[in-house]
Amino acid sequence: MSSSSSLPLIKTVALAGAGNLGAFFPEQLVGAGLETTVLTRAGSTKSFPAGVKVKEVDYSSPSSLESALAGIDAVVATLMALDAQAELIKAAAKAGVKLFVPSEFGNPSTELTDDDHPALAGKRTAHDQLNEAGLPALLVWNGPFPETTFNPYLGFDFANEKVSIYGSGRTPISWTTRLDVARFTAHHLASLASLPAVGDPSILRIEGTRASFLDVVDTFRALHPSRKVEVEHLPLEEGERAAKDVAGGFVPSLLAYLRVVWEKGQGKVDQDGRAQLSNGLWPEWNPKTVEEVLKEQTAEL
């Protein structure tokens, strides 16, 4: 790790991507005392909290990106289009950015292989691109977002009292809401005292709640004792076949892949105890629990 002074290391942050996850970041970054700039594409009509600067960029134009990143200490990317992230990485290096937070925000990614779903290939590529660009990196791993996972597409049809699970459903999973991910990341950047070495990224392993699929079902049952939830256990091999059938449907294969890898243990951000959780870096974090999310989401049932 590099040495640091008593002054804040990260003062200015650029956020690339203000959609599904990124929308939660501007308020948290500003609230943490960071001068925040949001990079938007032409024609964007999104509004942001007071104090947030907005710069329109063209991700196909290196000069546009380099100009927008002038004077920026850290970039947080929450982009779905990972080709745009590749250009952003190059521009960040040329602009003198100190730290890059790539679009991770999910399962551990450093052990991904060609056997994993092609939707995740960009994460592996980004690690190589950051190394080549000579940029220090911070990876944020938080497991699935409970508020976007408890839906029929991922097997949770609580409205119709049906849940389908690949495998036993007993594997612990790390669950963290998008807001809590943004809160922790912003706090960490504001309090950062040193930079990781190039090629050896720092990793935030944060977890709001640890619970298996069956734990989630039990929590729902406790909240709604009059609802009779039927749980269907599907063979894990069936899920694996569905995950491989990319040609038959990219999104359905990705959803099947996620359900399978979570059941196989890849949703635990401490990687089966091989590493420590980062929650202790901010004891006051107090993230929302799975129970609280379920209570809000199913209040009308």
Automatic annotation (TrEMBL):
Keywords assigned by UniProt?
NADP, Oxidoreductase
Pfam families linked: NmrA
Spell out the molecular function terms from Gene Ontology.
Answer: oxidoreductase activity
Domain (NmrA-like) spans 13-292
Which InterPro entries does this UniProt record tie to the protein? NAD(P)-bd_dom_sf (IPR036291), NmrA-like (IPR008030), NmrA/Isoflavone_reductase-like (IPR051609)
Q: What is this protein called?
A: NAD-binding protein
Task: Name the source organism.
Answer: Rhodotorula diobovata
